[in-house]
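Quick one, C-alpha cells below. Sequence please?
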C-alpha cells in the first residue's frame, strides 16, 4: 500500500530534485524543494520518501530495534512525497525572488526525513535546500566516484555510488564530545558551502555531476539576502553553529535542538540574529535547555528576538515525517514516535510557527503573526520550557560567556 505524506498547505504545488555537486567525499548533496507550475502528480508518480533500499537498511541499522526493521520494510520503503520530480519553477506573485531556507537533519536522518516541513515552506514560495550531511551522522549517505568501465571496451567513464555508513561513537568523555564537536563543525561548514552553491545556481553557473536541464530556471531567481537556517536535533545544534560561522544567515530555528556538540566559541561568535527554539515535551532535559538559554537576547545585550517555546503533547519524532507516514496515532504512540497529541495537528502547528518566525524576520508575507499564533494556541504551546531551571546558574553561565567574549576582544 502506497503511503503519501500530507499535501503541503500553501498555495503552490511543490517540485524537487537532488543536487550532487562533484565526485568525491567532499561533495555537497542536498534536495531542493521549490514552488512549481507543474500540476500535482499522482501518488504513483511522486518521488519515493526513501530514495533507494540502502537508506532503509541504514535506518534499521541505526535504530537497531527489530520491530522497527519490519516497519521500514513494510511502511516506509513504498512511502512517497507529494511533489513533482524536476517540475518547472513558478515564481510566486508575492515576491520578486525566492527566499532561501537551509535544513539540517538530525542524527540518523537523511535529506528526506523532514519532507513535510520542507515542502510546506516551499508551497508558500521559498527555495528549501535539505542537506544530507557527509560526517557519518546520517543513517546512510553516499558520494559519487568516477571510474573507467573496462568492460565497455572503449574505456568509458562511469559514475557509481560509494556508501558511507552511520558511525556509532564510543569511548565516553571527553572523546565523544570531541567527535561530536568535530561533526557539528563539519555540518555547519556544509551549510555554508551549500549557500555558496546556491549562489552559483543564482548566477547560472552551477554544474552538477548528473546534470540537470532545469538549473537555468533559477538564474537570478533567489534572494540570498533573505536566508534562514534550521534543523532538528543535531541539526538544531548545526543551525546554531552555522550562525556562528556565516553572517549570510539572517534567522535561525532549532527543532528540539541537541546542544551537546557545541563549544563556547560558537556561543560567543553567534551572529546577533533572531533564533527560535521549538522544543517537544518529552525529549529535553535541564542542562540542554540551559545551554539554549545562553543564547537569550540579554546574554550579549542584543535586540534580536531569541525565544524558546514547547509543543504540548509532542515527542522528539513529532517534527519528523515518521508519525505522518504511519497514520495510526495509537500505533505511533505505542512505538514512541509520536506524543499524546494528534501528530497531524502537531505537524501543522509546528509548520505554522516556523513560517511565522521566518516570515516575520525575513519580511515575508507567507507567515502569520507569531504572537497571535501563540495566543490562539495557548493550550498547545508553552512559552519557554516545560522544565524547571535554576535561573541563578543560568545567569552564572551567561556571565562566564560575557567574560570569555570580553577577553577575546
Amino acid at each position: 500500500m502506497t503511503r503519501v505524506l500530507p499535501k503541503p498547505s500553501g498555495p503552490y504545488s511543490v517540485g524537487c530534485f537532488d543536487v550532487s555537486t562533484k565526485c568525491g567525499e567532499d561533495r555537497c548533496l542536498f534536495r531542493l524543494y521549490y514552488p512549481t507550475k507543474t500540476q500535482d502528480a499522482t501518488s504513483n508518480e511522486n518521488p519515493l520518501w526513501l530514495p533507494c533500499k540502502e537508506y532503509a537498511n541504514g535506518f534499521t541499522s541505526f535504530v537497531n530495534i527489530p520491530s522497527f526493521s519490519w516497519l521500514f520494510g513494510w511502511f516506509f520503503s513504498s512511502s512517497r512525497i507529494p511533489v513533482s520530480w524536476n517540475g518547472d519553477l513558478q515564481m510566486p506573485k508575492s515576491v520578486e525572488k525566492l527566499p532561501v531556507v537551509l535544513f539540517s537533519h538530525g542524527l540518523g536522518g537523511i535529506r528526506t526525513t523532514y519532507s513535510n516541513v520542507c515542502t510546506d515552506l516551499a508551497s508558500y514560495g521559498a527555495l528549501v535546500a535539505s542537506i544530507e550531511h557527509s560526517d557519518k551522522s546520517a543513517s546512510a549517505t553516499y558520494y559519487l566516484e568516477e571510474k573507467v568501465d573496462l568492460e565497455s571496451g572503449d574505456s568509458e567513464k562511469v559514475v557509481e555510488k560509494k556508501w558511507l555508513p552511520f558511525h556509532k561513537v564510543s569511548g565516553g568523555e571527553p572523546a565523544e564530545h570531541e567527535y561530536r564537536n568535530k561533526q557539528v563543525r563539519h555540518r555547519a561548514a556544509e551549510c555554508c558551502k551549500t549557500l555558496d552553491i546556491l549562489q552559483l545556481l543564482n548566477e547560472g553557473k552551477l554544474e552538477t555531476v548528473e546534470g540537470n536541464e532545469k538549473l537555468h530556471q533559477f538564474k537570478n531567481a533567489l534572494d540570498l539576502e533573505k536566508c534562514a537556517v534550521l534543523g532538528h536535533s543535531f541539526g538544531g545544534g548545526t543551525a546554531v553553529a552555522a550562525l556562528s560561522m556565516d553572517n549570510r544567515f539572517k534567522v535561525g530555528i532549532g527543532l528540539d535542538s541537541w546542544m551537546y556538540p557545541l563549544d563556547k566559541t560558537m556561543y560567543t561568535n553567534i551572529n546577533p540574529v533572531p533564533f527560535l527554539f521549538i522544543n517537544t515535551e518529552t525529549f529535553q532535559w535541564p542542562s540542554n535547555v540551559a545551554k539554549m538559554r545562553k543564547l537569550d537576547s540579554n546574554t550579549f545585550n542584543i535586540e534580536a528576538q531569541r525565544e524558546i517555546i514547547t509543543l504540548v503533547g509532542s515527542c522528539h519524532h513529532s517534527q519528523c515525517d515518521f508519525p505522518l507516514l504511519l497514520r495510526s496515532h495509537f500505533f505511533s504512540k505505542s512505538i514512541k514516535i509520536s506524543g499524546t497529541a494528534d501528530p497531524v495537528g502537531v505537524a501543522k502547528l509546528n509548520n505554522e510557527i516556523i513560517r511565522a518566525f521566518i516570515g516575520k524576520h525575513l519580511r515575508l508575507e507567507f507567515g502569520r503573526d507569531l504572537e497571535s499564533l501563540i495566543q490562539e494556541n495557548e493550550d498547545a504551546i508553552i512559552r519557554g520550557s516545560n522544565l524547571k531551571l535554576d535561573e541563578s546558574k543560568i545567569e552564572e553561565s551567561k556571565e562566564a560567556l560575557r567574560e570569555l567574549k570580553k577577553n577575546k576582544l
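The CA atoms of residues 280 and 389 lie 16 Å apart. The radius of gyration is 21 Å.
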